Amino acid sequence: MLKRMTSMKTAITIMLLLIVTSILATFLPDFNIYQTIWYRGLLLFLCINLLFCTAKGLPMVFKNLKTIPTPNKNKFISGKKYKLENDKHFEKNTRASLTAQGYAVKISKFEQTTVISAHKGVINYLAPHVLHVALIIVFVGALLYSFGTTDNLYCYVGESVALPKEVMPTVKMRVDSFKTLYDHDGSIDNWQSKITLLKGSTPLISGSLKVNRPFEYSGVKFYQSGYGYDQQLRPYTILNVKRASGGSIIMFGLVIMAASSLFFWSGSYRKINIFIHRRDNIMQFNIYCKHKEIKEILTNQILQTIKGGKLC
Amino acid sequence: MLTIQSVSLSLSLTTYVMSFILYAANFFNAQVQYKQVAKIFVIIAFIATSATVIIRTFETGHPPFSNMFEFALAFLWGMSLAFLVVEFKCDLKGLGMFFTPLVIGMLMWLLTMDQGTEPLMPALRSNWLYIHVFTAVIAYGAFAVSFISAIMYLLKAAGFFQFLLPALETLDNLTYKIISFAMPFMTLLIITGAIWAEEAWGSYWSWDPKETWSLITWLIYIGFLHARLIGKWQGKKSMWFAIIGFLAVLFTFAGVTYLLPGMHSYA
Protein backbone atom coordinates (compact mmCIF):
# COMPACT_ATOMS: atom_id res chain seq x y z
CA MET A 1 0.00 0.00 0.00
CA LEU A 2 2.72 2.43 1.09
CA LYS A 3 4.83 1.41 -1.86
CA ARG A 4 1.98 2.10 -4.24
CA MET A 5 1.23 5.44 -2.66
CA THR A 6 4.80 6.61 -3.01
CA SER A 7 5.30 5.36 -6.56
CA MET A 8 5.84 7.60 -9.55
CA LYS A 9 3.04 5.81 -11.40
CA THR A 10 0.60 6.94 -8.72
CA ALA A 11 1.98 10.47 -9.01
CA ILE A 12 1.39 10.48 -12.77
CA THR A 13 -2.10 9.02 -12.31
CA ILE A 14 -3.04 11.73 -9.81
CA MET A 15 -1.64 14.36 -12.15
CA LEU A 16 -3.71 12.98 -15.01
CA LEU A 17 -6.83 13.08 -12.81
CA LEU A 18 -5.99 16.65 -11.78
CA ILE A 19 -5.55 17.63 -15.43
CA VAL A 20 -8.94 16.19 -16.39
CA THR A 21 -10.80 17.67 -13.43
CA SER A 22 -9.12 21.05 -13.87
CA ILE A 23 -10.18 21.14 -17.51
CA LEU A 24 -13.75 20.33 -16.45
CA ALA A 25 -13.56 22.98 -13.77
CA THR A 26 -12.61 25.74 -16.22
CA PHE A 27 -15.55 24.89 -18.48
CA LEU A 28 -18.06 24.47 -15.64
CA PRO A 29 -17.32 27.49 -13.44
CA ASP A 30 -20.77 27.37 -11.85
CA PHE A 31 -19.98 24.06 -10.19
CA ASN A 32 -17.00 25.56 -8.37
CA ILE A 33 -15.10 22.31 -8.66
CA TYR A 34 -11.95 23.81 -7.07
CA GLN A 35 -13.78 24.06 -3.75
CA THR A 36 -15.10 20.50 -3.77
CA ILE A 37 -13.70 18.00 -1.35
CA TRP A 38 -12.56 15.57 -4.02
CA TYR A 39 -10.63 18.20 -5.99
CA ARG A 40 -8.91 19.35 -2.81
CA GLY A 41 -8.43 15.69 -1.94
CA LEU A 42 -6.60 15.10 -5.22
CA LEU A 43 -4.31 18.06 -4.50
CA LEU A 44 -3.70 16.77 -1.00
CA PHE A 45 -3.06 13.25 -2.29
CA LEU A 46 -0.50 14.60 -4.77
CA CYS A 47 1.16 16.50 -1.94
CA ILE A 48 1.29 13.38 0.27
CA ASN A 49 2.72 11.37 -2.62
CA LEU A 50 5.35 14.06 -3.16
CA LEU A 51 6.15 14.14 0.53
CA PHE A 52 6.64 10.36 0.69
CA CYS A 53 8.64 10.25 -2.54
CA THR A 54 10.92 13.00 -1.29
CA ALA A 55 11.33 11.50 2.17
CA LYS A 56 12.11 8.13 0.62
CA GLY A 57 14.49 9.52 -1.97
CA LEU A 58 16.46 12.17 -0.10
CA PRO A 59 18.63 9.85 2.04
CA MET A 60 19.55 7.95 -1.13
CA VAL A 61 20.46 11.18 -2.86
CA PHE A 62 23.01 12.14 -0.22
CA LYS A 63 24.26 8.58 0.05
CA ASN A 64 24.86 8.44 -3.71
CA LEU A 65 26.75 11.69 -3.60
CA LYS A 66 29.00 10.63 -0.77
CA THR A 67 29.61 6.96 -1.45
CA ILE A 68 32.89 5.82 -2.82
CA PRO A 69 32.55 2.33 -4.22
CA THR A 70 34.64 -0.25 -2.42
CA PRO A 71 36.20 -3.01 -4.47
CA ASN A 72 34.51 -6.25 -3.53
CA LYS A 73 37.18 -8.30 -1.78
CA ASN A 74 39.65 -7.09 -4.37
CA LYS A 75 37.78 -8.91 -7.08
CA PHE A 76 37.29 -7.25 -10.43
CA ILE A 77 34.02 -5.54 -11.11
CA SER A 78 32.19 -6.84 -14.13
CA GLY A 79 32.91 -5.08 -17.38
CA LYS A 80 35.89 -4.39 -19.59
CA LYS A 81 39.42 -4.50 -18.26
CA TYR A 82 42.25 -2.40 -19.61
CA LYS A 83 45.97 -3.00 -19.24
CA LEU A 84 47.94 -0.07 -17.85
CA GLU A 85 51.57 0.67 -18.61
CA ASN A 86 52.20 2.43 -15.35
CA ASP A 87 49.52 2.59 -12.69
CA LYS A 88 51.09 5.45 -10.68
CA HIS A 89 51.50 7.53 -13.77
CA PHE A 90 47.92 6.87 -14.80
CA GLU A 91 46.60 7.77 -11.36
CA LYS A 92 48.49 11.06 -11.36
CA ASN A 93 47.43 12.03 -14.87
CA THR A 94 43.80 11.11 -14.35
CA ARG A 95 43.60 13.03 -11.12
CA ALA A 96 45.16 16.13 -12.71
CA SER A 97 42.95 16.03 -15.78
CA LEU A 98 39.72 15.47 -13.83
CA THR A 99 40.56 18.22 -11.34
CA ALA A 100 41.33 20.58 -14.20
CA GLN A 101 37.89 19.84 -15.64
CA GLY A 102 36.24 20.87 -12.39
CA TYR A 103 35.55 17.43 -10.94
CA ALA A 104 35.64 16.81 -7.21
CA VAL A 105 38.12 13.93 -7.06
CA LYS A 106 38.59 11.47 -4.20
CA ILE A 107 41.23 8.76 -4.21
CA SER A 108 40.91 5.84 -1.83
CA LYS A 109 43.51 3.12 -1.44
CA PHE A 110 42.41 -0.38 -0.64
CA GLU A 111 44.56 -3.46 -0.13
CA GLN A 112 45.18 -4.18 -3.79
CA THR A 113 43.04 -1.58 -5.47
CA THR A 114 43.04 2.19 -5.84
CA VAL A 115 39.65 3.78 -6.44
CA ILE A 116 39.42 7.17 -8.11
CA SER A 117 35.95 8.56 -7.62
CA ALA A 118 35.08 11.86 -9.26
CA HIS A 119 31.89 13.79 -9.83
CA LYS A 120 30.69 17.08 -11.21
CA GLY A 121 27.34 18.89 -11.55
CA VAL A 122 26.03 18.27 -8.02
CA ILE A 123 23.69 21.28 -8.33
CA ASN A 124 22.02 19.70 -11.34
CA TYR A 125 21.72 16.39 -9.48
CA LEU A 126 20.05 18.10 -6.52
CA ALA A 127 17.74 20.32 -8.62
CA PRO A 128 14.69 18.01 -8.82
CA HIS A 129 14.93 17.16 -5.13
CA VAL A 130 15.20 20.80 -4.05
CA LEU A 131 12.27 21.60 -6.34
CA HIS A 132 10.18 18.86 -4.70
CA VAL A 133 10.98 20.18 -1.22
CA ALA A 134 10.13 23.72 -2.38
CA LEU A 135 6.77 22.51 -3.71
CA ILE A 136 5.96 20.95 -0.33
CA ILE A 137 6.85 24.27 1.35
CA VAL A 138 4.52 26.10 -1.05
CA PHE A 139 1.72 23.59 -0.34
CA VAL A 140 2.12 24.03 3.42
CA GLY A 141 2.16 27.83 3.05
CA ALA A 142 -0.91 27.69 0.81
CA LEU A 143 -2.77 25.59 3.35
CA LEU A 144 -2.08 28.18 6.08
CA TYR A 145 -2.85 31.02 3.68
CA SER A 146 -6.24 29.54 2.85
CA PHE A 147 -7.35 30.11 6.45
CA GLY A 148 -6.75 33.85 6.09
CA THR A 149 -9.59 36.37 5.99
CA THR A 150 -10.28 38.89 3.29
CA ASP A 151 -12.96 41.49 2.70
CA ASN A 152 -13.83 44.39 0.42
CA LEU A 153 -14.21 47.81 2.03
CA TYR A 154 -16.30 50.48 0.31
CA CYS A 155 -15.56 53.95 1.60
CA TYR A 156 -16.34 57.56 0.57
CA VAL A 157 -13.52 60.07 0.55
CA GLY A 158 -13.33 61.82 3.92
CA GLU A 159 -15.30 59.11 5.72
CA SER A 160 -14.15 56.06 7.63
CA VAL A 161 -15.18 52.41 8.02
CA ALA A 162 -14.34 49.84 10.67
CA LEU A 163 -11.98 47.05 9.59
CA PRO A 164 -13.52 43.56 9.87
CA LYS A 165 -13.02 42.12 13.36
CA GLU A 166 -11.03 39.10 12.14
CA VAL A 167 -8.67 41.40 10.22
CA MET A 168 -7.97 44.03 12.84
CA PRO A 169 -10.43 44.60 15.71
CA THR A 170 -11.19 48.11 16.95
CA VAL A 171 -9.35 49.78 14.09
CA LYS A 172 -11.02 52.10 11.59
CA MET A 173 -9.83 53.15 8.17
CA ARG A 174 -10.33 56.69 6.92
CA VAL A 175 -10.02 57.47 3.21
CA ASP A 176 -8.22 60.81 2.91
CA SER A 177 -8.27 61.03 -0.87
CA PHE A 178 -8.88 59.06 -4.01
CA LYS A 179 -7.75 60.01 -7.48
CA THR A 180 -7.16 58.65 -10.93
CA LEU A 181 -3.60 59.22 -12.15
CA TYR A 182 -3.07 59.94 -15.84
CA ASP A 183 -0.17 59.58 -18.23
CA HIS A 184 1.09 62.56 -20.23
CA ASP A 185 -0.89 61.23 -23.21
CA GLY A 186 -4.11 61.10 -21.20
CA SER A 187 -4.36 57.33 -20.70
CA ILE A 188 -5.07 56.03 -17.20
CA ASP A 189 -1.88 55.23 -15.32
CA ASN A 190 -3.35 54.10 -12.01
CA TRP A 191 -5.82 54.71 -9.20
CA GLN A 192 -4.55 55.92 -5.88
CA SER A 193 -6.17 55.98 -2.44
CA LYS A 194 -4.62 57.69 0.56
CA ILE A 195 -5.75 56.23 3.86
CA THR A 196 -5.23 56.66 7.59
CA LEU A 197 -5.77 53.89 10.14
CA LEU A 198 -7.31 55.05 13.40
CA LYS A 199 -7.64 53.53 16.84
CA GLY A 200 -10.50 55.48 18.34
CA SER A 201 -9.63 58.93 17.10
CA THR A 202 -5.84 58.48 17.33
CA PRO A 203 -4.15 57.99 13.95
CA LEU A 204 -1.96 54.88 13.84
CA ILE A 205 -0.44 55.29 10.41
CA SER A 206 -1.11 56.94 7.05
CA GLY A 207 -0.21 55.65 3.65
CA SER A 208 -1.14 55.44 0.02
CA LEU A 209 -1.87 52.53 -2.24
CA LYS A 210 -2.28 51.89 -5.95
CA VAL A 211 -2.92 48.91 -8.19
CA ASN A 212 0.27 46.81 -8.00
CA ARG A 213 1.39 48.80 -4.90
CA PRO A 214 -0.49 47.45 -1.86
CA PHE A 215 -0.16 49.08 1.54
CA GLU A 216 0.86 46.95 4.51
CA TYR A 217 0.46 47.53 8.21
CA SER A 218 1.22 44.96 10.91
CA GLY A 219 0.41 41.91 8.82
CA VAL A 220 -2.64 43.40 7.11
CA LYS A 221 -2.50 44.26 3.43
CA PHE A 222 -4.68 46.78 1.62
CA TYR A 223 -5.17 46.51 -2.15
CA GLN A 224 -6.71 49.03 -4.52
CA SER A 225 -9.43 46.90 -6.02
CA GLY A 226 -11.98 49.31 -7.54
CA TYR A 227 -13.85 52.60 -7.33
CA GLY A 228 -17.20 54.06 -8.21
CA TYR A 229 -19.66 56.92 -7.88
CA ASP A 230 -23.02 56.93 -6.14
CA GLN A 231 -26.21 58.56 -7.46
CA GLN A 232 -25.05 62.01 -6.27
CA LEU A 233 -21.75 61.36 -8.12
CA ARG A 234 -19.81 61.17 -4.85
CA PRO A 235 -16.69 59.06 -5.44
CA TYR A 236 -15.95 56.05 -3.32
CA THR A 237 -12.99 53.68 -3.40
CA ILE A 238 -13.06 49.90 -3.01
CA LEU A 239 -10.17 48.42 -1.09
CA ASN A 240 -9.51 44.76 -0.57
CA VAL A 241 -8.18 44.09 2.89
CA LYS A 242 -6.47 40.85 3.80
CA ARG A 243 -4.87 39.19 6.78
CA ALA A 244 -3.32 35.81 6.08
CA SER A 245 -0.45 33.93 7.59
CA GLY A 246 1.56 31.62 5.38
CA GLY A 247 2.29 34.31 2.81
CA SER A 248 5.95 34.46 3.74
CA ILE A 249 6.17 30.64 3.69
CA ILE A 250 4.71 30.64 0.17
CA MET A 251 7.18 33.34 -0.92
CA PHE A 252 10.06 31.38 0.61
CA GLY A 253 8.92 28.24 -1.22
CA LEU A 254 8.47 30.09 -4.49
CA VAL A 255 11.95 31.62 -4.29
CA ILE A 256 13.51 28.18 -3.69
CA MET A 257 11.37 26.81 -6.52
CA ALA A 258 12.63 29.52 -8.86
CA ALA A 259 16.24 28.94 -7.81
CA SER A 260 15.99 25.18 -8.24
CA SER A 261 14.38 25.69 -11.66
CA LEU A 262 17.52 27.56 -12.66
CA PHE A 263 19.64 24.68 -11.28
CA PHE A 264 18.26 22.48 -14.06
CA TRP A 265 20.22 24.47 -16.62
CA SER A 266 23.57 23.81 -14.93
CA GLY A 267 25.79 21.09 -16.39
CA SER A 268 24.33 17.63 -15.97
CA TYR A 269 25.59 15.41 -13.19
CA ARG A 270 28.24 12.84 -13.98
CA LYS A 271 30.11 10.43 -11.77
CA ILE A 272 33.18 8.45 -12.75
CA ASN A 273 34.55 5.54 -10.76
CA ILE A 274 37.94 4.18 -11.79
CA PHE A 275 39.39 1.04 -10.24
CA ILE A 276 43.11 0.41 -10.55
CA HIS A 277 44.14 -3.11 -9.61
CA ARG A 278 47.73 -2.37 -8.72
CA ARG A 279 49.06 -5.91 -8.68
CA ASP A 280 48.01 -6.72 -12.23
CA ASN A 281 48.24 -3.14 -13.54
CA ILE A 282 44.67 -3.41 -14.73
CA MET A 283 42.11 -0.63 -14.90
CA GLN A 284 38.35 -0.74 -14.97
CA PHE A 285 35.83 2.07 -14.87
CA ASN A 286 32.17 2.93 -14.87
CA ILE A 287 30.42 6.19 -15.62
CA TYR A 288 27.07 7.43 -14.42
CA CYS A 289 25.41 10.15 -16.49
CA LYS A 290 21.85 10.57 -17.76
CA HIS A 291 23.06 11.82 -21.13
CA LYS A 292 24.36 9.17 -23.48
CA GLU A 293 26.46 11.64 -25.48
CA ILE A 294 28.31 12.89 -22.40
CA LYS A 295 28.87 9.31 -21.32
CA GLU A 296 30.44 8.51 -24.68
CA ILE A 297 32.68 11.56 -24.60
CA LEU A 298 33.87 10.70 -21.10
CA THR A 299 34.55 7.09 -22.04
CA ASN A 300 36.70 8.20 -24.97
CA GLN A 301 38.49 10.68 -22.77
CA ILE A 302 39.44 8.03 -20.22
CA LEU A 303 40.52 5.63 -22.95
CA GLN A 304 42.75 8.36 -24.37
CA THR A 305 44.44 8.80 -21.00
CA ILE A 306 45.58 5.20 -21.28
CA LYS A 307 46.39 5.75 -24.95
CA GLY A 308 43.76 3.64 -26.61
CA GLY A 309 43.72 1.18 -23.78
CA LYS A 310 44.64 -2.36 -24.47
CA LEU A 311 41.66 -4.56 -23.73
CA CYS A 312 42.58 -7.66 -21.86
CA MET B 1 3.75 53.08 -38.69
CA LEU B 2 1.01 50.53 -39.23
CA THR B 3 2.17 50.10 -42.79
CA ILE B 4 5.81 49.47 -41.84
CA GLN B 5 4.54 46.83 -39.40
CA SER B 6 2.43 45.20 -42.11
CA VAL B 7 5.36 45.24 -44.50
CA SER B 8 7.70 43.55 -42.03
CA LEU B 9 5.03 40.97 -41.14
CA SER B 10 4.40 40.25 -44.81
CA LEU B 11 8.15 39.90 -45.32
CA SER B 12 8.25 37.31 -42.50
CA LEU B 13 5.35 35.46 -44.10
CA THR B 14 6.89 35.46 -47.59
CA THR B 15 10.30 34.30 -46.37
CA TYR B 16 8.78 31.55 -44.23
CA VAL B 17 6.72 30.34 -47.23
CA MET B 18 9.88 30.35 -49.37
CA SER B 19 11.82 28.46 -46.73
CA PHE B 20 8.97 25.91 -46.42
CA ILE B 21 9.11 25.22 -50.18
CA LEU B 22 12.89 24.83 -50.06
CA TYR B 23 12.79 22.66 -46.94
CA ALA B 24 10.22 20.42 -48.64
CA ALA B 25 12.42 20.21 -51.75
CA ASN B 26 15.36 19.27 -49.57
CA PHE B 27 13.29 16.73 -47.63
CA PHE B 28 12.16 14.82 -50.70
CA ASN B 29 15.23 15.33 -52.92
CA ALA B 30 18.04 15.47 -50.39
CA GLN B 31 19.61 18.41 -52.23
CA VAL B 32 21.83 20.16 -49.70
CA GLN B 33 21.76 23.53 -51.48
CA TYR B 34 18.00 23.85 -50.98
CA LYS B 35 18.41 23.59 -47.24
CA GLN B 36 21.20 26.15 -47.16
CA VAL B 37 19.04 28.69 -48.97
CA ALA B 38 16.08 27.77 -46.75
CA LYS B 39 18.21 28.58 -43.71
CA ILE B 40 19.06 32.01 -45.14
CA PHE B 41 15.33 32.66 -45.55
CA VAL B 42 14.73 31.56 -41.97
CA ILE B 43 17.31 34.09 -40.76
CA ILE B 44 15.68 36.86 -42.81
CA ALA B 45 12.27 35.84 -41.44
CA PHE B 46 13.60 36.01 -37.88
CA ILE B 47 15.09 39.46 -38.51
CA ALA B 48 11.80 40.65 -40.01
CA THR B 49 9.85 39.29 -37.01
CA SER B 50 12.27 40.96 -34.58
CA ALA B 51 11.92 44.20 -36.58
CA THR B 52 8.13 44.01 -36.18
CA VAL B 53 8.56 43.62 -32.42
CA ILE B 54 10.93 46.61 -32.29
CA ILE B 55 8.71 48.79 -34.51
CA ARG B 56 5.71 47.95 -32.37
CA THR B 57 7.61 48.75 -29.16
CA PHE B 58 8.61 52.19 -30.47
CA GLU B 59 5.11 52.85 -31.71
CA THR B 60 3.33 52.02 -28.45
CA GLY B 61 6.08 52.90 -25.97
CA HIS B 62 6.01 49.46 -24.34
CA PRO B 63 7.03 45.93 -25.40
CA PRO B 64 4.29 44.08 -27.30
CA PHE B 65 2.61 42.77 -24.15
CA SER B 66 -0.71 44.56 -23.94
CA ASN B 67 -3.33 42.85 -26.13
CA MET B 68 -3.92 39.66 -28.07
CA PHE B 69 -2.20 40.87 -31.23
CA GLU B 70 0.88 41.89 -29.28
CA PHE B 71 1.01 38.64 -27.29
CA ALA B 72 0.65 36.65 -30.50
CA LEU B 73 3.48 38.69 -32.02
CA ALA B 74 5.67 37.98 -29.00
CA PHE B 75 4.74 34.27 -29.18
CA LEU B 76 5.63 34.23 -32.89
CA TRP B 77 8.99 35.80 -32.10
CA GLY B 78 9.64 33.13 -29.44
CA MET B 79 8.77 30.38 -31.93
CA SER B 80 11.05 31.90 -34.59
CA LEU B 81 13.91 32.19 -32.12
CA ALA B 82 13.49 28.65 -30.77
CA PHE B 83 13.37 27.20 -34.26
CA LEU B 84 16.40 29.20 -35.40
CA VAL B 85 18.47 27.94 -32.46
CA VAL B 86 17.43 24.29 -32.89
CA GLU B 87 17.86 24.41 -36.67
CA PHE B 88 21.40 25.75 -36.50
CA LYS B 89 22.43 23.65 -33.52
CA CYS B 90 20.98 20.28 -34.51
CA ASP B 91 20.40 20.59 -38.26
CA LEU B 92 17.70 17.91 -38.22
CA LYS B 93 16.31 16.68 -41.47
CA GLY B 94 12.63 17.49 -41.92
CA LEU B 95 12.27 19.80 -38.93
CA GLY B 96 12.11 22.88 -41.16
CA MET B 97 9.49 21.38 -43.44
CA PHE B 98 7.25 20.42 -40.52
CA PHE B 99 7.85 23.51 -38.40
CA THR B 100 7.48 26.34 -40.91
CA PRO B 101 3.74 25.65 -41.58
CA LEU B 102 3.12 26.29 -37.87
CA VAL B 103 4.79 29.71 -38.06
CA ILE B 104 3.06 30.46 -41.36
CA GLY B 105 -0.31 29.69 -39.78
CA MET B 106 0.52 31.92 -36.83
CA LEU B 107 1.55 34.76 -39.17
CA MET B 108 -1.63 34.46 -41.20
CA TRP B 109 -3.67 34.64 -38.00
CA LEU B 110 -1.67 37.72 -36.92
CA LEU B 111 -2.32 39.47 -40.22
CA THR B 112 -6.08 39.01 -39.83
CA MET B 113 -6.11 40.34 -36.26
CA ASP B 114 -6.98 43.85 -35.13
CA GLN B 115 -3.58 45.54 -35.06
CA GLY B 116 -4.70 48.65 -33.21
CA THR B 117 -2.65 49.98 -30.30
CA GLU B 118 -3.89 50.51 -26.78
CA PRO B 119 -2.27 52.00 -23.70
CA LEU B 120 -1.14 49.51 -21.08
CA MET B 121 -3.90 49.12 -18.50
CA PRO B 122 -3.01 49.92 -14.87
CA ALA B 123 -3.02 46.28 -13.70
CA LEU B 124 -0.34 45.51 -16.29
CA ARG B 125 1.87 48.46 -15.32
CA SER B 126 4.35 46.51 -13.29
CA ASN B 127 7.90 45.32 -13.84
CA TRP B 128 6.61 41.79 -13.31
CA LEU B 129 4.91 42.04 -16.71
CA TYR B 130 8.23 41.95 -18.55
CA ILE B 131 9.66 38.90 -16.84
CA HIS B 132 6.27 37.14 -16.75
CA VAL B 133 5.66 37.50 -20.49
CA PHE B 134 9.31 36.94 -21.39
CA THR B 135 9.34 33.55 -19.64
CA ALA B 136 6.09 32.70 -21.47
CA VAL B 137 7.53 33.66 -24.85
CA ILE B 138 10.64 31.52 -24.42
CA ALA B 139 8.80 28.55 -22.92
CA TYR B 140 5.98 28.56 -25.49
CA GLY B 141 8.40 29.09 -28.39
CA ALA B 142 10.49 26.12 -27.32
CA PHE B 143 7.40 23.95 -26.68
CA ALA B 144 6.32 24.65 -30.26
CA VAL B 145 9.53 23.08 -31.58
CA SER B 146 9.19 20.08 -29.24
CA PHE B 147 5.61 19.64 -30.50
CA ILE B 148 6.87 19.31 -34.07
CA SER B 149 9.69 16.92 -33.17
CA ALA B 150 7.20 14.77 -31.24
CA ILE B 151 4.90 14.69 -34.28
CA MET B 152 7.85 13.67 -36.45
CA TYR B 153 8.59 10.87 -33.98
CA LEU B 154 5.03 9.57 -34.11
CA LEU B 155 4.94 9.82 -37.92
CA LYS B 156 8.10 7.78 -38.19
CA ALA B 157 6.93 5.29 -35.57
CA ALA B 158 3.70 4.88 -37.57
CA GLY B 159 5.67 4.10 -40.70
CA PHE B 160 5.47 7.40 -42.57
CA PHE B 161 8.55 8.82 -44.36
CA GLN B 162 10.53 5.87 -42.97
CA PHE B 163 13.70 6.65 -44.89
CA LEU B 164 13.41 10.41 -44.81
CA LEU B 165 12.88 11.25 -41.16
CA PRO B 166 15.71 11.17 -38.60
CA ALA B 167 16.12 8.18 -36.27
CA LEU B 168 13.53 7.76 -33.53
CA GLU B 169 16.20 8.07 -30.87
CA THR B 170 17.36 11.42 -32.28
CA LEU B 171 13.82 12.79 -32.30
CA ASP B 172 13.11 11.46 -28.82
CA ASN B 173 16.32 13.00 -27.53
CA LEU B 174 15.61 16.37 -29.13
CA THR B 175 12.05 16.50 -27.78
CA TYR B 176 13.32 15.70 -24.31
CA LYS B 177 16.13 18.25 -24.48
CA ILE B 178 13.87 21.08 -25.65
CA ILE B 179 11.24 20.37 -23.01
CA SER B 180 13.89 20.12 -20.27
CA PHE B 181 15.18 23.50 -21.38
CA ALA B 182 11.74 25.10 -21.54
CA MET B 183 10.27 23.68 -18.33
CA PRO B 184 12.21 25.97 -15.95
CA PHE B 185 10.85 28.93 -17.96
CA MET B 186 7.35 27.51 -17.62
CA THR B 187 7.86 27.12 -13.86
CA LEU B 188 9.19 30.67 -13.60
CA LEU B 189 6.18 31.83 -15.61
CA ILE B 190 3.82 30.42 -12.99
CA ILE B 191 5.95 31.63 -10.06
CA THR B 192 6.23 35.21 -11.36
CA GLY B 193 2.51 35.13 -12.12
CA ALA B 194 1.72 34.05 -8.54
CA ILE B 195 3.94 36.68 -6.94
CA TRP B 196 2.56 39.40 -9.21
CA ALA B 197 -1.04 38.29 -8.59
CA GLU B 198 -0.48 38.66 -4.87
CA GLU B 199 0.79 42.20 -5.41
CA ALA B 200 -1.98 43.22 -7.78
CA TRP B 201 -5.04 41.26 -6.65
CA GLY B 202 -4.15 40.18 -3.14
CA SER B 203 -3.96 36.46 -3.76
CA TYR B 204 -1.26 34.15 -5.12
CA TRP B 205 -3.74 31.94 -6.84
CA SER B 206 -7.37 32.61 -7.74
CA TRP B 207 -8.26 29.70 -10.06
CA ASP B 208 -8.66 32.17 -12.90
CA PRO B 209 -9.06 30.12 -16.14
CA LYS B 210 -5.71 31.31 -17.47
CA GLU B 211 -4.01 30.34 -14.21
CA THR B 212 -5.70 26.95 -14.17
CA TRP B 213 -4.79 26.30 -17.79
CA SER B 214 -1.16 27.22 -17.17
CA LEU B 215 -1.22 24.73 -14.29
CA ILE B 216 -2.76 22.10 -16.61
CA THR B 217 0.00 22.76 -19.17
CA TRP B 218 2.65 22.56 -16.48
CA LEU B 219 1.23 19.27 -15.16
CA ILE B 220 1.22 17.76 -18.66
CA TYR B 221 4.88 18.59 -19.19
CA ILE B 222 5.71 17.41 -15.66
CA GLY B 223 3.94 14.21 -16.73
CA PHE B 224 6.18 14.06 -19.80
CA LEU B 225 9.36 14.42 -17.72
CA HIS B 226 8.30 11.84 -15.13
CA ALA B 227 6.89 9.38 -17.65
CA ARG B 228 10.36 9.06 -19.13
CA LEU B 229 11.63 7.75 -15.81
CA ILE B 230 9.24 4.80 -16.03
CA GLY B 231 10.41 2.23 -18.53
CA LYS B 232 7.02 1.41 -20.07
CA TRP B 233 6.09 5.04 -20.65
CA GLN B 234 9.07 5.94 -22.78
CA GLY B 235 8.85 6.49 -26.51
CA LYS B 236 5.41 6.89 -28.08
CA LYS B 237 3.52 7.49 -24.84
CA SER B 238 5.80 10.27 -23.70
CA MET B 239 5.60 11.86 -27.18
CA TRP B 240 1.84 12.11 -26.74
CA PHE B 241 2.46 14.13 -23.57
CA ALA B 242 4.62 16.52 -25.64
CA ILE B 243 1.91 16.90 -28.26
CA ILE B 244 -0.99 17.34 -25.83
CA GLY B 245 1.24 19.71 -23.83
CA PHE B 246 1.56 22.08 -26.76
CA LEU B 247 -2.15 21.88 -27.52
CA ALA B 248 -2.67 22.96 -23.91
CA VAL B 249 -0.20 25.81 -24.49
CA LEU B 250 -2.26 26.94 -27.48
CA PHE B 251 -5.46 26.69 -25.50
CA THR B 252 -3.98 28.58 -22.54
CA PHE B 253 -2.76 31.22 -24.95
CA ALA B 254 -5.74 31.72 -27.24
CA GLY B 255 -8.60 29.41 -26.25
CA VAL B 256 -8.93 30.72 -22.71
CA THR B 257 -8.98 34.31 -23.95
CA TYR B 258 -11.84 33.73 -26.33
CA LEU B 259 -13.82 31.05 -24.50
CA LEU B 260 -13.24 31.44 -20.79
CA PRO B 261 -13.19 35.05 -19.63
CA GLY B 262 -11.46 35.80 -16.35
CA MET B 263 -8.99 38.15 -14.73
CA HIS B 264 -6.57 37.71 -17.63
CA SER B 265 -9.25 38.94 -20.04
CA TYR B 266 -7.01 41.64 -21.55
CA ALA B 267 -5.27 38.77 -23.33
How would you characterize the overall build of this protein?
- With 312 residues, chain A is α+β, with helices and mostly antiparallel strands.
- In chain A, 39% of the residues lie in helices and 32% in strands.
- Chain A is built from seven helices and 14 strands.
- Chain A has helices at residues 2-5, 8-27, 37-66, 87-100, 122-145, 247-263, 292-305; strands at residues 82-83, 104-109, 113-120, 149-156, 160-162, 171-182, 188-199, 202-210, 215-217, 220-229, 235-243, 270-277, 282-289, 310-311.
- In chain A, the strands form three sheets. A six-stranded antiparallel β-sheet of chain A has the order 2-3-12-13-1-14.
- The longest helix of chain A is centred in the N-terminal third of the chain and has 30 residues, at 37-66.
- In chain A, 24% of the residues are buried.
- Chain B has 267 residues and is mostly helical.
- Chain B contains eight helices and no strands.
- In chain B, helix 3 crosses helix 5 and helix 6 runs antiparallel to helix 7 (209-227).
- The mean pLDDT of chain B is 92.
- Classes of the chains: A alpha+beta (312), B mainly alpha (267).
- Chains A and B meet through helix 2, helix 5, strand 7, strand 10 and helix 6 of A and helix 6 and helix 7 of B.
